[in-house]
Automatic annotation (TrEMBL):
CDD domains: YdcF-like (cd06259). This is Uncharacterized SAM-binding protein YcdF, DUF218 family. Residues 42-156 form the DUF218 domain. It comes from Rhodococcus koreensis. GO terms for cellular component: plasma membrane.
Length: 185
């Protein structure tokens, strides 16, 4: 019985250290990661995710004259009215293009961005995503093309529980490992 208690205490201690480590490293590695200043770019790339203000932010930057093109990743279901409204934008100050990524991942978004960069002769793009996704997105995009990448987070706060943050950090870390294993596009 004493061995079992010792084993359980050891396992619980290791689990606590692991969870605490993921939380601390995740907080500083993902939530406090580098954010680039807004600057003139050839195109604004809005990554798919949740409709959390990212599309509005990309459009507002274009309305301010930051870029002449807004590219919206569209991994959403065909009946998604919110993305459809953005894709139908009639703003004449810039063009809006909606693209379904293949695969429907950050890598798929980087791949279609690479094609657009090559086709249009662009040198610099601004990529918008969650704050905690920026390090992984920066890595993946840098593997797909040589142009300059400006990374900006969706301007919002995240009201996540500790369990949600742990999951988010773990998800981003596993995704980062996957990106490293996959190598360049």
């Amino acid at each position: 019985m004493r061995k079992l208690v010792t084993l359980l205490v050891g396992a619980l201690s290791a689990f606590t250290i692991l969870v605490g480590g993921i939380g601390v490293v995740g907080y500083f590695g993902y939530n406090k990661s580098r954010v680039d200043p807004v600057q003139q770019v050839d195109a604004i790339i809005v990554l798919g995710g949740e409709h959390d203000g990212r599309e509005e932010y990309g459009m507002s930057l274009a309305q301010q004259g930051i870029a002449n093109h807004v590219i919206l990743s569209n991994p959403y279901w065909p009946g998604d009215k919110k993305i459809a409204a953005f894709c139908a934008s009639k703003d004449t100050r810039f063009t809006v293009v909606c693209i379904q990524p293949a695969p429907s991942t950050t890598r798929g978004e980087a791949l279609f961005t690479r094609k657009l960069v090559e086709t249009n002769g662009w040198n610099r793009v601004l990529v918008i995503s969650w704050r905690f996704h920026l390090p992984r997105a920066r890595y993946i995009f840098s593997q797909c093309f040589d142009g300059e990448i400006v990374m900006r987070p969706v301007p919002r706060d995240y009201d996540y529980s500790l369990a949600e943050w742990e999951y988010t950090y773990l998800y981003q870390t596993v995704g980062f490992i996957k990106a490293v294993v996959q190598g360049p596009c």
